[in-house]
Design goal:
The complex is a heterodimer of chains A (about 375) and B (about 280). Chain A is of the alpha+beta class and about 375 residues long. Chain A contains eight helices and 20 strands. Chain A has two domains: about 230 residues, 3-Layer(aba) Sandwich (Rossmann fold); about 130 residues, Beta Barrel (OB fold (Dihydrolipoamide Acetyltransferase, E2P)), CATH 2.40.50. In chain A, strands 6-7-8-3-9-10 form a six-stranded mixed beta sheet, with helices on both faces. In chain A, strands 13-12-11-14-20 form a five-stranded antiparallel beta sheet. In chain A, strands 15-19-16-17-18 form a five-stranded antiparallel beta sheet, with no helix packed on it. Chain B is globular, with a radius of gyration of 24 Å. Classes of the chains: A alpha+beta (about 375), B mainly alpha (about 280). The interface between A and B is medium-sized, with 29 and 20 residues.
Chain lengths: ~375, ~280
């Protein structure tokens, strides 16, 4: 980790009365693959457009490579952007598209051609330079947009929802390719997306954004396993959240009393406010589905998490099956079960009584 | 009775339906038959335009010796050319302004700009006449300056059409393309030249064609703004018709139709060539 290439300092953006970005401060380090993740309308695209220079912050400062970008127009900033619509120029050939930035910069013609072809090879479009954009598929057009930006050798590459217009298979492939490409060129990537899978699979660090503010900044696995609040826990993946009170909170042990499911035991401390309202979150795949009574029963040693319920719904997803279980309290929760062998999904069906158990390291206690 | 035993028609076989065929026949008849008659009778060897008396080119020959008519044609083409060029620039700029910017009273500006399209031509003509008289616009200037009043009048009613066409084209422009150009280093002007202008081009060509033909065949407004030495082609034809509809008038009209067809074809060809060049570069 070296010095930050992008520093966002207390940036606020208002459109009329609407606050799109609310006092955000953020450092992005050179070489990172940073992903801004959030629901639509959360301000992530506005933030990206402010870095590119298409929007100006109402308040605050943006520094790129140590230089204040106030008053620097988009065409003078050392960043390039891949637009959501790709914005490939329809009246120019692929080669002319890729060479456009260099032509504006006054690069000699021969060098333009060489670099453009090099860049096209990088995104695996070699030999398609003579094509017009309307002769390309959506995925190829996106590669043109990528090549066109990369050829400028920007300090930072900004990508606005780069994969949202691609079909599922192509998207999965591009996720790998983008990560690979970033590794190869060593440019800092900042991507905006609302797709959590995309964020988790590509990012070296994720900023979850909600209502114009950063809800959490963390690596993908930290974000999933240690969400900072209910918004993040719920937005990334699927989760069961139980409201409760922290009744025991010791360095090696904690207990949350939840009316809906009973006691939830943790094998680590929480350092939360005693007897205050907290939320315990357990991911569906971390709960084990057992035949009734097979999970250790009521008189199990303290520290064992167990609950009983009835299966009210199930959806078979191939690699796993998602069950909706109604607890004794009437609360519905989700439990997923990997289909490890071929007939696993036949073990449980609608209206089966089941027991659930989970490891005391699995629950996360959320204070907000 | 084959009419009753034939197979039933599929829902989309419109071209086989009798009512539709009669409709098409009627439209064709009333639209093209007059033109055809006009064309055929331009070769009629007779002074009166009613009975066919044999084939001749003499009215075409006569036509080209008719100095009044030829100078009127020259005037018309000059006016149309000037009006087209100015309307194109003015109209395109207005379209970009209305598309790009938000400003107070924008709706008002749009409405005022559409006025020349909706105001009856006769009113426009009278208004122009009164206006040029009131400001004492000089009428005795040497050619082509003596055409200035007509040209200005033509620009007034031509450029809103250009604006309309270009604006319709701009409506489906992807603004991210312009942003992409700027992102790649282009300044405002370069982005306009390299991205927006190529997108506008079909609209500009269509607008120019529209302006040219509108100007070329305008009669009413021109009639009110033309002086004794600034007769345009339609006005001249009208004055000829007042005496009698001779084959000479037919010949003139035939030539005008031909000119329009050639111009349109050339414009379309140019557009195609530009498109092809882009595709195969």
């Amino acid at each position: 980790m070296s010095e930050p290439i992008i520093q966002i300092r207390n940036v606020t953006k208002r459109f009329g009365n609407m606050v799109a970005v609310d006092n955000v401060s953020l450092d992005i380090v050179a070489g990172e693959f940073f992903v801004m993740l959030g629901p639509s309308g959360c301000g992530k695209t506005t933030l990206l457009r402010m870095i590119a220079g298409f929007e100006l912050p109402t308040e605050g400062q943006i520094l790129i490579d140590g230089q204040d970008m106030a008053g620097v127009p988009p065409n003078k900033r050392p960043v390039n952007m891949v637009f959501q619509s790709y914005a490939v120029f329809p009246h120019m050939s692929v080669l002319d598209n890729v060479g456009y930035g260099m032509k504006i910069a006054g690069v000699p013609k021969r060098e333009i051609r060489e670099r453009a072809e090099e860049s096209l090879a990088l995104v695996k479009l070699d030999g398609l330079g003579a094509r017009m954009p309307d002769q390309l598929s959506g995925g190829q057009r996106q590669r043109v947009a990528l090549a066109r930006s990369l050829v400028m050798r920007p300090k930072v590459l900004l990508l606005d929802e780069p994969l949202s217009a691609l079909d599922a298979k192509l998207r999965a492939q591009m996720q790998f390719e983008l990560a690979d490409l970033q590794d190869k060129v060593g440019i800092t990537f900042i991507t905006v997306t609302h797709d959590q899978d995309e964020a988790l699979s590509m990012a070296s660090r994720i900023g979850v954004i909600n209502k114009g503010q950063i809800a959490q900044l963390a690596t993908p696995s930290d974000l999933y396993e240690y969400p900072a609040n209910r918004f993040v826990a719920d937005f990334i993946g699927s989760v069961n959240i139980f409201e409760g009170k922290l009744s025991v909170d010791e360095p090696e042990r904690a207990v949350v009393d939840c009316p809906e499911i009973g006691k939830i035991y943790l094998n680590h401390g929480v350092t939360g406010p005693h007897e205050a309202s907290v939320w315990a979150a357990v991911r569906p795949e971390k709960m084990m589905l057992c035949k009734p009574g097979e999970a250790v029963g009521r008189d199990a040693p303290e520290g064992h998490n167990v609950a009983n319920g009835i299966i009210k719904g199930m959806s078979y997803l191939g690699d796993c099956t998602l069950y909706e279980v109604m607890l004794d309290s009437g609360r519905m929760i989700r439990v997923s079960r990997a289909n490890l062998s071929r007939f696993d999904q036949e073990d449980f069906t609608w209206d089966d009584k089941v027991s659930l158990c989970w490891h005391p390291s699995s629950p996360v206690v959320l204070l907000a | 009775m084959s009419l009753f035993t034939r197979k039933p028609l599929a829902p989309l076989e419109y071209t086989k339906r009798l009512w539709l065929r009669s409709w098409i026949a009627a439209v064709t008849l009333f639209l093209y038959a007059p033109l055809l008659v006009l064309f055929v009778f331009s070769f009629n060897d007779s002074k009166a335009n009613v009975v066919w008396r044999g084939f001749t080119f003499k009215y075409y020959a006569k036509l080209f010796k008719n100095d009044g008519l030829m100078s009127a044609l020259g005037n018309s083409l000059t006016i149309a050319f000037l009006a087209t060029v100015v309307s194109l620039v003015l109209g395109a700029l207005a379209a970009v302004m209305l598309w790009r910017f938000r400003f107070p009273a924008k709706a008002g500006v749009e409405g005022v700009m559409a006025l020349p399209i909706v105001v009856p031509e006769i009113c426009m003509g009278v208004a122009m006449l009164v206006f040029f008289a009131a400001i004492e616009w000089p009428t005795d200037l040497p050619w082509p300056l003596n055409l200035s009043a007509i040209t200005i009048a033509h620009i007034t009613f031509c450029f809103p059409f250009v604006t309309m066409v270009v604006r319709a084209r701009l409506a489906n422009f992807n603004r991210e393309e312009e942003e992409a150009a700027k992102d790649l280093g282009a300044n405002e002007w370069q982005a306009f030249r390299d991205v927006l202008l190529p997108h506008m081009k079909p609209g500009l060509i269509a607008g120019a064609l529209l302006a040219f033909t509108l100007s070329l065949d305008d009669f009413v407004i021109t009639f009110f703004t033309s002086g004794p030495n600034t007769t345009t082609f339609p006005v001249k034809v009208y004055s000829m018709v007042r005496f009698s509809v001779t084959p000479e008038v037919n010949a003139v009209s035939t030539l005008l139709i031909l000119l329009t067809i050639i111009l349109t074809t050339v414009a379309l060809k140019l557009q195609n060539i530009a498109g092809d060049a882009g595709a195969h570069k």
